[in-house]
Amino acid sequence: MLPTTATLYSSNYERMSGNCTRLLATQLISTLTPPITNTSYILDNACGPGIVSEQIKLLHPDARILATDIAPGMIDEVKHVITKNGWSNMSTAILDIRDLRILEDGKFSHVIMNLGMPVPGDPTSGPKIVQEMFRVLKIGGVAVISTWADRVWLSAFRNAALAIRPNEIPDSFMTLAPELLRASWIVQQLEEGGFGTNVEVRSCVTYTTAASLEELTGNMMLAKEMFFSRFTDEEIERAEPILREELAKLRTFERFEGGVRIGMKAWTGVGTKKGDEEEVSA
Ligand SMILES: C[S@@+](CC[C@H](N)C(=O)[O-])C[C@H]1O[C@@H](n2cnc3c(N)ncnc32)[C@H](O)[C@@H]1O
After folding, report:
1. CATH number of the structural domain spanning residue 199
2. Which domain of life is it from (predicted)?
């Protein structure tokens, strides 16, 4: 049986992502206006294993955080991290980002969603998700969202799949429609979700990193069910060295002292709830 995106994510998430979402998370939280402080109340929406929360707690240990995700396995990981680090002022909930109705209006100073949108299999979920983020923010609060601008590494999987089964269309579970990779898409979701003209978008660069090309390939192969779902074990074994070669050929592949990495570009969208969203200028 194919894993759902949520179950696939819930184990080995950080290894599979090679730190790329953590690097993005640091950029998201470092450039906020108003900034996060120890008195902020933050919703880490679609929190995964709690990477955004962890980065916040490193800088602002007393900040109050609610971390939510639809995958119980992710929430278990967050609970484990809370206990391990002895964090106070932090709670968790299993919630769908499209429906935060158990959360009151106007409570949060910051709502952060790192790579949670759109919901897999629901490409039109954007405005619904943003409406909920907007609703739970207080006036003066800020929502931050990140989405991918490119996914250069998908072509390496595609080429590896075609090398093994040249006459079969490769799996496309992870493929996003090109319009979802545009800056204009993230702006539109924020506008339609309620932020009106109080919206900004920026680009960010991040990397999936490993100590060696072999390790990087092994990390990425943790997602093999999403790319080689119909392959036999023997075919998957043959695909791995081809994937390794394909990764090394990517435009953004680099070797550096201490390892290798693949560069990726993302968008950061910021919406501020000013309370003037309904005003229409003449
Ligand atoms: C790419 S991960 C991002 C995780 C995390 N924010 C980070 O910084 O790495 C996407 C997350 O969205 C969660 N997710 C998927 N669909 C969801 C939904 N409908 N509601 C809430 N979370 C969802 C998944 O379980 C996964 O943890």
Report:
1. 3.40.50.150
2. Eukaryota
